[in-house]
């Protein structure tokens, strides 16, 4: 009888722990209802994927939208990053030449070919990497699983970025779901949840910019800037400048639905030319943005674009219609 009671108590404890863990998991997931009525406001004019954090862009006419970002077969948004000898990530903020690492992909999007000025091309077999055992790397102070891309890639990046034979390595994020918590500075935004933190992204899995907002900024600065300088995933057209600030729900095409999680704050990365890797000597366009685009809860950082959380998966195609919730 005593054994039976003990067994039942043990089962109760296990069930109780399972319920608590499930509750915590569900609490982290967005549970809001997706709108049923939509109105078209514009179209998708550009679709960008950045496989390497701070690296160059891969464009395609279509991508799948999954929890960690854009995906086409093995190529995913911001699933590679360059780390130092301590396993901590580096970005173009301190190493601008990273923006000149140009990724190209093979026909089935399983191999990434990297080129850079005065460097021989190097191939990264992403499909093969996905089968290897991960170690740990650090992004924004938080440890993540990461697969080392090998000595050849390490030497290539060390030579191009540092002018040395060693010091940097390329690592790959293998999971198909987010594993990090919301960064401390973003917790002020109630819509920010761990399920939206992406792979190796700064804030969320997706970011949208309005090309009319960029054009309005260009009316204020001397040197012309393009959306690429802001590294978005989605660029929309036929929308009034800064109208995107007020969007709550966004649908792109007929499937994928997003929620506006927070404004996209800008830093010195914005001042780096994505082609030449040169910093703007006048600290533009960041300097001008600070004169008119500061938002509540964003500190001293100006805003351009919005961070999105995926609420319904789907395929997105170039020139897809952009919808927002119809009130």
TrEMBL record:
Keyword field contains tRNA-binding: no
Alphabetically ordered keywords of this record: Membrane, Transmembrane, Transmembrane helix
Record-annotated membrane-spanning stretches: 6-26
Gene Ontology molecular function, alphabetical: catalytic activity; molybdenum ion binding; pyridoxal phosphate binding
Stretches assigned to the MOSC domain: 177-325
Superkingdom, taxonomy of origin: Eukaryota
UniProt-listed InterPro entries: MoCF_Sase_C, MOCOS_middle, Pyrv_Knase-like_insert_dom_sf
Name used for this protein in its record: CLUMA_CG015274, isoform A
Lineage, top ranks: Eukaryota, Metazoa, Ecdysozoa, Arthropoda, Hexapoda
